[in-house]
Amino acid sequence: MTRVLVVDDEPQIVRALVINLKARKYEVDAAADGATALQLAAARHPDVIVLDLGLPDMDGVDVIRGLRGWTRVPILVLSARHSSDEKVEALDAGADDYVTKPFGMDELLARLRAAVRRAEPVAGSGEDDVTVDTGDFTVDLAAKKVNRDGRDVRLTPTEWHLLEVLVRNTGRLVSQKQLLQEVWGPSYGTETNYLRVYMAQLRRKLEADPSHPKHFITEPGMGYRFER
After folding, report:
1. Of 71, 98, 119, which one is at a domain's C-terminal end?
2. Closest by alpha carbon to 198, among 214, 179, 175?
3. In terms of domains, do 103 and 174 share one?
4. Is 125 among the domain residues?
5. Residue 147 in domain
């Protein structure tokens, strides 16, 4: 059974989540503060964590950083904070997804299922020999090649680096700041026009319909997501 750790100091939200998750055969642990959450995560090894940022003893972003020191468990942030800066901060700290309150239970559960699926290991593939086939094109991470319609697609080094970061985080929202710093360097973090230009180039080279992309998805004000 999939084990979920719910971290929130609002009893009514915890109760609603516990009822809905248990009804769908999840095992559920709950914590009302950050310290308890970190202790339960270490003791119970959840498969996914639903985390509120506004906790009574510490900021939820600090909880994310504490978890990322030793585990890659998917973290789904659930918060009343709506500003892009706060969302980006949580994603940069290591969160996998972000849902704002008030939220729809069906959407939250769908995002939770997606986070668990993405965390499952792919049989027979290692970190350095992954080939990703979208149906429209194939990315060979080991050979650093992209093939579309039986032909290699020529990418610039920057285009490849951007593609590689997104593909290695398939299904996960990657913040603008993270992409800029990984591709262009640590002194870059606000030059979002770079991303718009290079994402447009990747879509033109790889998407069947660049004006309606299905693989390189923009999350406005937050970042980008690669979907197979």
Report:
1. 119
2. 179
3. no
4. no
5. yes
Structure tokens at 14: 């915890």
- 111: its two tokens: 């995002």
Question: What CA–CA distance (Å, rounded) separates 202 from 153?
Answer: 10
Domain hosting 24: range is: 3-119
Cα 48–53–59 angle (5° rounding)?
115
Number of residues that this document lists for the chain: 228
Bridge partner residues of 77 (DSSP)? 51, 98
User: Which tens digit of pLDDT belongs to each residue from 138-177?
Assistant: 999 888 899 999 999 988 777 888 999 999 899 889 999 8
Indicate which CATH number applies to the domain containing 55: 3.40.50.2300
Asked if pLDDT for residue 183 goes beyond 90, the answer is no
**Cα 118 from Cα 121, distance rounded (Å):** 8
> 221: domain CATH number?
1.10.10.10
136: left (phi over 0), alpha (psi -120 to 50) or beta: alpha
Give me the helix-helix angle, 176-183 and 84-93, nearest 10°: 50
**Model confidence at 186: pLDDT above 50:** yes
Q: What is the pLDDT of residues 65-86, one digit of tens each?
A: 999 888 878 899 998 887 877 8
